[in-house]
Write a structure and sequence with these properties.
By secondary structure, this protein is mostly helical. The chain is 66% helix and 11% strand. The two termini are 32 Å apart.
Length: 291
């Protein structure tokens, strides 16, 4: 089965190439004109290049066939890449905030026009990457991480444009570090959400929005089901929820019919297509009791 991220490998590759190319341009112009806003945005894009590269590598590796030792394949690499992206984004946000605050004491003179030209080009590139990753971000946590990074770059480009216009028209030196702080603050809440989602999957918690008690009740309400216990629901990678559990079958009920109905309820009502269900007779199930 192809993962959600695997279906969007080509857009990831294009976004990676565009972001890497523009990052080099931003660093060169940023250091040549001594602009914190541009350097900070370039640093952010640098982590995005790493993040997009990780995402692309994870999707490529996850597409490899399973083996006797990796029965789920390498799907979890996508989640690990998303977590790594989150950690990198926290780091760059901290750097941007520290450097911006330091410059408030002695803001350097920054020419506005080179800043403006560079930022406009960056905005156009980020819009292309943003559009490429939009559909994949709704299906894959890994692609969503890359999408959020590009979104941060897009907002960063807008911020740099604002700083450039202010510098070109008024010469106000604090515009550059203020925009730098704005970029840093913008990164943080989205980074926290991404990191929390990745950790939730790695800890094998029930997927967000999945009501385990409701699912247990729906399965228990199936004719022929006496009780449900040891029901576990988790996510392998984005778009791949799994379940396992034990169903106590009432006396006289048909095991095959009960199992078919349980799997249909999980698949059709709760979008869990991969389920491993063990049916047990009442006598066996009574020793455990429902949970």
């Amino acid at each position: 089965m192809e993962s959600a991220g695997g279906r969007h490998r080509r857009p990831l590759a294009i976004a990676f190439a565009l972001t890497a190319s523009y990052m080099v341009v931003e660093f060169i112009v940023g250091f040549s004109v001594n602009s914190l806003a541009l350097i900070s945005d370039a640093a952010h894009m640098g982590t995005d290049v790493i993040g997009l590269g990780l995402a692309l590598a994870a999707v490529t590796l996850a597409a490899r066939k399973t083996s006797t030792q990796r029965t789920y394949g390498l799907y979890r690499l996508e989640v690990l890449a998303a977590l790594a992206n989150g950690v990198l984004l926290f780091g760059v946000a901290g750097f941007v905030l520290f450097e911006a605050i330091r410059r408030f004491g002695d803001p350097p003179t920054v020419p506005g026009m080179p800043l403006l030209i560079t930022a406009v080009i960056g905005l156009a590139i980020n819009l292309v990457s943003f559009r490429l990753l939009m559909s994949g971000s709704k299906e894959s946590l890994n692609v969503r991480g890359a999408y959020l990074e590009v979104l941060g770059d897009l907002i960063g480009s807008v911020g740099v444009i604002v700083a450039a216009i202010i510098l070109a028209t008024t010469g106000w030196p604090y515009a550059d570090p203020i925009i730098g702080v704005g970029i840093g603050l913008f990164i943080l809440p989205r980074t926290w959400k991404l990191t929390r989602q990745a950790l939730r999957i790695l800890l094998e918690a029930a997927p967000e929005g999945v009501d385990v008690e409701r699912i247990t009740a729906d399965v228990a309400a199936i004719p022929g089901v006496e009780a449900v216990h040891d029901l576990h629901i988790w996510t392998i990678t984005s778009g791949m929820d799994s379940a396992s559990g034990h169903v106590v079958v009432a006396k006289g009920a048909d095991y095959e019919s009960v199992l078919t109905e349980v799997q249909a309820v999980l698949r059709d009502r709760h979008n869990i297509a991969h389920a491993t269900i063990q049916c047990e007779p009442v006598a066996f199930g009574e020793t455990r009791g429902p949970i």
